[in-house]
Design a protein that fits this description.
The active site is at residue 70. The protein has helices spanning 45-52, 75-84, 100-107, 163-169, 174-182, 217-223, 240-246, 251-261, 280-290; strands at residues 7-13, 27-32, 35-39, 61-63, 91-96, 118-123, 128-132, 135-141, 149-154, 158-161, 184-186, 192-194, 199-202, 206-210, 228-232, 265-269, 294-297, 303-305. The protein has 322 residues and is an alpha/beta fold. Helix 6 crosses helix 8. The chain starts with 6 loop residues before the first strand and ends in a 17-residue tail after the last strand. 46% of the residues are buried.
Length: 322
């Protein structure tokens, strides 16, 4: 398995329908406390993983938003690499149920020594939730010419211990762990110390992955209050009519989503091949005009950390979360 206690996005590819000299087809590996969520592995993902220093053993989930080629043509190589490398842990695969025929074609695209570790999790309806170890994985429908789903990860809320209050009550060493497990513990003076007296709420971290879509309720529900939002920004605003026609977002719309949803770090990706490196500042400017927070324009093989929560950051509750 990969690095433990690491919450980081490994960007494998950032182009849209056509790869360019600087941008490979889509591919995003979100490492989260020993789990690895591989989103939309496009063509070339297997090789990009080698360049990024990650392996098939880091993957525990494969999440496909929809079955346009730039979001899934890397599935055969990834699956066959999982088999070839002898991955023994379970790898769950989420994808739109309506595209199951395409999934099976990709999953069994060529002759190879197959693996039994891949467990299929077809997604349908307005909301799907999965237990994904340290997080809950949620899928919601988006608005695209073919059925498409976005994904969200939520860590359960917890509590943060307050050292000064622990010292005041004489709680230290093994008693701290006992207090966390049991919710109460006897203090040296014989009184009972309850967890709420020496701790405070700690909101769980969250991340969302929003690919090909127009603005819709699903976009905002997925993005609401997340620490890290990975979102397509295929076009600049001058092509907003084209974006709407083909079911995509502009950088300005991505910034609006982040601003209205209370996002902490915005990652722009899925850049149309019509734009070159000289256009990149325009994406940042358009998104930044709407969103005053941290904006990152994703580049192939870059890494983006999930911002840590602190006691002043509370999860918004406009939309229901797991």
């Amino acid at each position: 398995m990969g690095l433990v206690s690491l919450r980081e996005l490994v960007v494998l590819g950032t182009s849209s329908a056509v790869p360019t000299r600087n941008r490979n087809h889509n591919g995003y590996l979100l490492l989260w406390d020993g789990q690895g969520f591989l989103f939309d592995p496009g063509e070339g993902t297997q090789r990009q993983m080698v360049h990024a220093g990650v392996s098939s053993h880091d993957i525990t989930w494969i999440c496909v938003t929809h079955f346009h080629g730039d979001h899934c043509l890397g599935v055969p190589g990834v699956v066959q690499r999982i088999a070839r490398d002898g991955v023994t842990h379970r790898v769950q695969a989420a994808f739109p149920a309506s595209g199951e025929t395409y999934w099976r074609r990709l999953r069994h695209a060529t002759v190879f020594a197959d693996t039994s570790v891949i467990v299929e999790r077809p997604v349908s309806g307005e909301l799907a939730r999965f237990d994904a170890g340290p997080v809950t994985l949620t899928a919601r429908p988006l608005s695209h010419p073919v059925e498409s789903y976005g994904y969200r990860l939520d860590e359960p809320d917890g509590r943060r211990m307050l050292p000064e209050r622990l010292r005041e009550r004489g709680i230290q060493g093994p008693r701290v762990g006992e207090l966390q497990r049991a919710g109460a513990v006897a203090a040296p003076d014989g009184t009972t110390v309850h967890l709420a007296e020496v701790s405070e709420p700690r909101p769980g971290q969250s991340a969302a992955f929003v690919m090909d879509t127009r603005l819709c309720d699903g976009v905002f529900a997925l993005a609401e209050g997340v620490d890290l939002l990975m979102i397509e920004s295929t076009f600049l605003s001058e092509e907003s009519a084209l974006a709407a026609e083909y079911g995509h977002l502009t950088a300005a719309q991505a910034g609006r989503v982040a601003a209205e949803s209370g996002v902490r770090r915005l990652v722009l990706t899925h850049i149309s091949e019509r734009y070159g490196t000289d256009d990149e500042p325009r994406f940042l400017a358009e998104a930044g005009a709407a969103f005053g927070g941290d904006v990152v324009l994703a580049r192939d093989l870059s890494r983006v950390r999930v911002p840590r929560r602190d006691r002043h950051v509370q999860r918004a509750a406009k939309y229901p979360t797991p």
